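Re: beginner question about structure tokens

> Can someone show what the tokenized structure looks like for a real chain? I only ever see the sequence side.

Sure, here's an example I had lying around. Input first:
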Amino acid sequence: MKALFGYFGRMFDHDVNIPSHPLYQLFLLHSLAKEYKIDKFDIHYYDTVYDYKTPKYHVLPEIREDLYDKLVDKDNVSLEEVLDTDYDILFLKNRFRNYSRLKDGSLDTYDFEQIYNKFKDKCIIIDTDEQVKKPYEHIVTYFNGKYDYPKGTGDVTKIIPVLEEDVLACIDSYFKSKLTFQLTYIGNEYFKEGIQDSFAELKKYYPELMIKVQGTWIKHPFIYEVISRKDRAYGYEQLASSPYTVQISKPVYLKSDFLAPRIFESLLLGTIIFSQNSFMPKFSKFTDLLELSEKMKFLDEINEDEYKKILITEVKELYKNLDNKS
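And the corresponding structure tokens:
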């Protein structure tokens, strides 16, 4: 079966100032391949201005290179070639017209629509951020709970974007020593209700806490370091060295139990992530910031072997809660 994966971003740890979570993309391909019985994918980037010769994986290099060789047939396929190829199935990350992208000269939505209009009956739209505003015949969703798509939407398939086997393999091969008192958060601060107040309050409960963020942020007093979105490698290295991070995001993500890529990228790098989603393990789920700070202090007090055992226990409980059948 000939498959296409259309994506805005890159499959590797790029240094382009564009939105995306590049770390989990190859693992998503692995999950899609198992769900839909696919051997190989062609990759098309909606915004192909970035020229490269060899993909670079600064974190998890061996596992990602192996997945790339296993799953990718042709990379960086042009729009013209896509439209001239007889694909059996196409997975398109949803795109929508966006002020910041158009301001930067990107025509990614036009590109997305050209492919969708040509292969409409064969396209499966991947919704990663509740921005589907019109009905599609087929959707893959990261919403684990009830989410209302536009009237007329066809079949909706829930998928876990990263397989349990891949998370455990990454922890086994790549686990990094943790820097105590450090929380690294990858993601922008806008559209995330209360994130600034939450981080400021965490600092009150845990004054030693060093908070690093990557993305579009103001340098608030409670922030130790703002990492440029372009420096993906450094951001992921900091996350891998942190004993904890947190999922604080849009209210709809909590209401509809969104399987945020941030959760899986953190676990792939061997970092415990705290969240309020219903599917989280008991230890990884928090009700208020005082409880969260106490759990962080506990992780800073234990040794590396104890931490790793807890991490693996949390991963297995998470996937048990998600009822992963992989």
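Each token stands for a local structural state, so reading them left to right follows the chain. The chain has a mean pLDDT of 92.
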